Predict the structure.
Amino acid sequence: MSRMMIISAAVAVLGLGAYFVTSPGPSVTPADPLGAANAQVSEEDIDTSTISEMSLGNPDAPVTVIEYASFTCPHCATFHAGPYKQLKADYIDTGKINFVYREVYFDRFGLWASMIARCAGTPQSFFGMTDLIYAGQSTWARAGEPTAIVAELRKIGALAGLDADRMEACLQDGDRARTLVAWYQENAEEHGIDSTPSFVINGKKYSNMAYDEMAALIDAAAE
């Protein structure tokens, strides 16, 4: 399947073409990631190299752990509320692993949350925002209408110190959103990601697991 076909499939699943900017103000939903009228684009038009990897820990560590997660996934929120904190203390903060977080977009709301998180800029700020988004998931993800969900995400951004104008610019950047969708699809195709959270430890994919099992896999990979 070509990358353009994959991206088109993602648009259908996410329902991204239904939302356009119609007026200024907090009730506006983010821009259509693939442009007005779902315009056709060629593969050359999407440069996914502009998307920064969000990572923590030691980039030169012998073990790299990639987490694939959706901001709207309850199991992902549970992981970040518990096992992730253990992983960070035991392996990330000690420099034993390189930890990479990659967003999965199973719905447009997860994409919007990602756009808010990435608006923070640095990896440290991104992960701080990620903590807030997961902690408030039961509130913002269930707010109801898309405009209400975006309003709740804006509250999280404001709580993290994002300027309102900057946040709005991030949310309305359709080209950026389109590139994020293409980037996600490339990653998902590379590692066969079809559920969240999923983990890739030194190139091998694993489904969600207990922390003790993950720690054992990491220790084995480091040997």
